[in-house]
Write a structure and sequence with these properties.
Number of strands of chain B: 2
Largest sheet of chain A: 4 strands, parallel
CATH class of the largest domain in chain B: Mainly Alpha
Distance between the termini of chain A: 33 Å
Oligomer: heterodimer
Helix content of chain A: 40-55%
Structural class of chain A: alpha/beta
Strand content of chain A: 5-15%
Strand order of the largest sheet of chain B: 1-2
Largest sheet of chain B: 2 strands, antiparallel
CATH topology of the largest domain in chain B: Fumarate Reductase Iron-sulfur Protein, Chain B, domain 2
Radius of gyration of chain A: 19 Å
Distance between the termini of chain B: 13 Å
Structural class of chain B: mainly alpha
Shape of chain B: extended
Strand order of the largest sheet of chain A: 2-1-3-4
CATH architecture of the largest domain in chain B: Orthogonal Bundle
């Protein structure tokens, strides 16, 4: 099986662990990743300011990333995932729009022959790899470890554009984590926003949202929070210390990427999944997950 | 920009569920009012206040208001419409304009970053990618046509 990997800008330049860990997990599962170099920004950040430009940028990705020998485009960032699924939906609905975009693409020497499948990492592990496969791959049962899931807003909403799970009550990430031998539990902040979008325009409010998410989640006694999105990871992991300091609090929530947790559970090393790039206090949970 | 049906907007009966769910403490129902005034003459003051203010740029795009709305008012489309109107008046945050400019010049919205490891080591994006055996960043070579199309589209979007 082959799959195209689309990292998006932020994973490419900043959240390197997102890319490293998924590539290692794919290698273990004997899936061939195609990582194209001719990528561009999807335009998510400035979509309201330059709507046609953003639409073109995303459509350009559909054309340049499509590879008929693969199952589709595994999109690592939630923002890019929303842009891609929304653009697919709009281009399928609007023939005139599609033709206009095709003519611009042609000027660049690109062709949008068919619209590829856009795959979210959670959908990939749940629907394509499958629960059975993950259950068979797991090394140990961790009955004591309760994991909090964080899907991120743009993986699921808005429900007007079809996604892979229920927009207000998703469960696929829970099933994946349970297949790995961990426990999960619902909590009031589960679908709360990480605040990343506001970093550009209102950083104080962005930090406040992230603080609410981190402190709210930790009070329910979770050992670990797991996400797939590089932006959510930036807020909840990379910036956790700064955020907690801002509110006179301490870092208290271990955060990992889903692909890192899967990697560790199938026997990959800490360096394989770039665990040295996690800045949240994961040391307290590692002895229970990794055999040293 | 998506077209918004007026019938859908007028379905808002100000139940304030959107206010209750907004993590940024915004009042999305006011955005509905402002949108209506872009078509009718009423609420013009609300429109001017919203377009010129900071509230539309404080939306975290969590999209919870869209899901919670019992009347299915597309609040995300309304906010984006108002942001676009503000942008046309030159009121868009500069950071977004820079990101679009970066994209046109380098394909990416972000430039190289400093990455810190748990052990306190500092890396540039290029260094850590090479160290971990990842492909280098895309090179903006032969992107003249891309720039031309993007420039043209940005011009259309600004009108």
């Amino acid at each position: 099986m082959k799959v195209v990997i689309f990292t998006g800008c932020f994973t490419l330049v900043k959240q390197i662990a997102v890319e490293v860990s998924i590539l290692k997990v794919l290698q273990y599962l004997n899936i061939e990743p195609i990582v194209p170099r001719n990528i561009n920004c999807c335009g998510f950040a400035f979509r309201s300011i330059y709507p046609s430009t953003s639409l073109y940028l995303t459509a350009r990705l559909l054309a340049s990333l499509h590879n008929p020998e693969t199952i589709g485009i595994l999109t690592l960032c939630n923002g890019c995932y929303l842009m891609l699924r929304e653009t697919v939906y709009r281009l399928k609905e609007d023939r005139k729009l599609l033709e206009g975009i095709k003519s611009h693409l042609k000027e660049e020497g690109l062709e949008l022959k068919e619209i590829p499948r856009i795959i979210h990492p959670i959908e990939f592990f749940h629907d394509i790899i499958g629960i059975k496969m993950l259950e068979n791959a797991k090394r140990r049962q961790y009955s004591d470890i309760v994991v909090a899931t964080h899907y991120g807003c743009h993986a699921l909403r808005p429900s007007t554009t079809p996604s892979f799970d229920n927009p207000m009550n998703p469960s696929k990430m829970e099933r994946v984590i349970e297949a790995l031998g961990f426990r999960t539990r619902d909590y009031p902040e589960r679908l709360d926003c990480c605040g990343a979008v506001l970093l550009a325009t209102n950083p104080n409010l962005a930090m406040r949202l992230a603080y609410n998410k981190i402190s709210g989640t930790s009070r329910w006694g979770f050992s670990l929070l797991v996400t797939t999105c590089p932006y959510c990871f930036e807020m909840l992991d990379s910036r956790q210390e700064a955020i907690m300091q801002m509110f006179s609090d301490e870092p208290k929530l271990s955060v990992m990427l889903l692909s890192q947790l899967i990697g560790l559970q199938i026997g990959l090393s800490e360096s394989d999944v770039a665990l040295n790039l996690n800045l949240s206090p994961i040391d307290r949970i590692l002895p229970y997950i990794v055999k040293r | 920009m998506l077209e918004i049906s007026l019938e859908t907007i007028r379905a808002c009966y100000t139940c304030f569920k959107c206010i209750g769910v907004c993590p940024a403490g915004l009042r999305p129902n006011l955005f509905v009012k402002a949108y209506l005034s872009s078509i009718f003459k009423e609420f013009r003051d609300v429109y001017e206040e919203i377009i010129g203010g900071s509230s539309i740029w404080s939306c975290a795009r969590c999209l919870k208001c869209v899901e919670i709305c019992p009347q299915k008012v597309p609040l995300n489309d309304i906010i984006e419409y108002l942001q676009h109107e503000a942008a046309k008046r030159g009121l868009a945050p500069k950071i977004y304009l820079n990101m679009a400019e970066n994209t046109m010049n380098t394909y990416l919205a972000f430039t190289s970053q400093t990455i810190v490891s748990k052990d306190g080591d500092f890396y540039t994006t290029e260094d850590i990618r090479e160290l971990l055996g990842l492909a280098p960043l895309p090179e903006p070579i032969g992107n003249e046509k891309f720039k031309e199309i993007l420039n043209m589209l940005r011009g259309l979007d600004s009108k």
